[in-house]
Amino acid sequence: MKNKKQDNRVGIMGGTFNPIHYGHLVTAQEALKQFNLNKVIFIPTGEPPHKTLAKIASAEDRYLMTVIATASNSNFIVSRIEIDKKGKSYTIDTVRELRKKYGKELSLYFITGADAILEILTWKNTEEIITLCSFIAATRPGYNISRIEDLTKKLFNNNEDKISIMEVPALAISSTDIRYRIKSGRPINYLLPEGVCNYILKHGLYK
Ligand code: NAP
């Protein structure tokens, strides 16, 4: 529920972060404020279940870029929980582990892109995941929310405590566009933190 003050409200920022950019950071900050979260744990996906590894930077590179991007915010933490896991990263395993670590009283909010949440019915153990956490679906400006609304009706029984849509204008920035820009020699500065920009250049990522 929005605007409810508690000590045990944690956001899980799930994503491939290939690479992390200002859209992700603004999303996390906005969720922190709107949902009165105590902290946001960024969890870069180790081996995304639905992607071919050849197309993404290594898990370690994506983890380090996430650490660089979030270093100055004391409410942001980065977890290696999926990076260190062998095999595919399933959200159900991550959420179960966080519940075990932090206890049953914790309110968990899984924050990710609306397009990713639309695929939730294809995820492992969907029924269990939705009992363990609530969802914050971040959308880009102009996003057609009707499919998310349909999902809210179907899967969450219109329960607004279980899924919220959050429009984030900064999500006009996208990882796909950043990778495309690098490939075609166009500038990427001001789309992502300078440290992440320098990391990409230093390691020759996405060329
Ligand atoms: P994706 O398909 O690469 O991303 C879908 C859209 O959401 C893209 O537009 C993406 O923009 C945006 N997005 C991704 N993460 C975001 C975030 N944290 N905040 C705001 N926008 C975000 O999705 P993904 O990154 O691979 O997966 C998202 C999460 O869902 C991950 O935690 C993943 O592990 C989980 N997931 C779990 C399963 C499963 O358990 N079976 C299956 C699929 C996904 P950018 O490209 O700009 O980031």
Q: What proportion strand?
A: 15-25%
- CATH class term: Alpha Beta
Estimate nothing, just give the exact number of structural domains: 1
What is the distance, rounded to the nearest whole angstrom, between the alpha carbons of the first and last residues? 43 Å
Give the low-pLDDT segments: 1-6
Strand and helix order: EHEHEHEHHEHEHH
Q: What is the overall pLDDT average?
A: 92
How many distinct beta strands? Answer: 6
Provide the helix percentage: 25-40%
Radius of gyration over all CA atoms, rounded: 16 Å
Given helix and strand content, the structural type is: alpha/beta
For the biggest sheet, the summary is:
6 strands, parallel
Structure overview:
There is one protein chain. This protein is of the alpha/beta class and 207 residues long. It has one domain (10-203): 3-Layer(aba) Sandwich (Rossmann fold). The chain contains eight helices and six strands, in the order βαβαβαβααβαβαα. It has helices at residues 22-34, 59-70, 91-102, 114-117, 126-132, 146-156, 175-183, 194-203, and strands at 9-15, 39-44, 76-78, 107-113, 134-139, 163-167. It has a six-stranded parallel sheet, with helices on both faces. The radius of gyration is 16 Å and the shape is globular. Bound molecules: NADP nicotinamide-adenine-dinucleotide phosphate. NADP nicotinamide-adenine-dinucleotide phosphate binds next to strand 1, helix 1, strand 4, helix 4 and helix 7.
